[in-house]
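Hey,
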Amino acid sequence: MRIAIPNKGRLCEPTIELLERAGIRVVDTNGRRLYGKTNYESISILFARAQDIPRYVESGAADAGITGLDMIKEKNADVEVVTKLKMGRCKVVLAVPEKSRIRTPSQLKGSRIATALVNVTKKYLEDKGIKAQVVELSGAVELAPYLGIADGIIDQLSTGTSLAVNNLRIVDTLFESTACFIANKSSLASMRQEIEEVKFSFEGLITAEEKRYVMANVTSDETLKRVIAVMPAMESPTVLKLAKEGEYAVHSVVDEKDLMSTVRKLKNAGAKDILVFGMGRVIL
């Protein structure tokens, strides 16, 4: 199986890190890092521009790939989105100068819109029934209004800092983008087992980032009832009898966002010896 991954940009390092955490390590690359072998004989890596990966996967040059949903939409690629990876998140937005008269998308009629996402922009304008000129740029799109070559922009927004620096404000959000693990449809049919193995590894790692394993001891049946009542769980807490008669250990998997309140509730319910662990993978 050949997996195409970004060779540079904001998704490059997070993608390599994700592969390594999943146990897939690039062990041999050519001098220009165009392709590489991994510690799995059945898996090789193709390094490519993020915007080209949808086409490589669609054509079968790669069996699978990791790239942004924005790139998939821009290329209108006929690929299967196997799973979303919750990294490289951004919004694709319509923005105009702070002093612009444009307050709603309908006011774009006759204006100039600068973008690197030409196809996304054209589809957006078409869906809205708006006739406007699309100005194609390959980078630094947010400078276009300042330079006088556009009245607004459609661009990816990660933090909002660039818009603020260039005195731009958001008029509309087209969609939210995240990195996706995608597959060629024919490859998915012939390599389903291999692709699903990678998918489950990725999903297990991502889910584990949001979970914590909590263990607590209780010293009586009454305390056990109170602890179980406040202990969150994926299905149900695990209860184990301890060697000491009448005492128990309660184990559960808790969402990280609920951890602080859970620990407080457990303490108030009478739990002791509370331990919290990070998790390697959680397969739902």
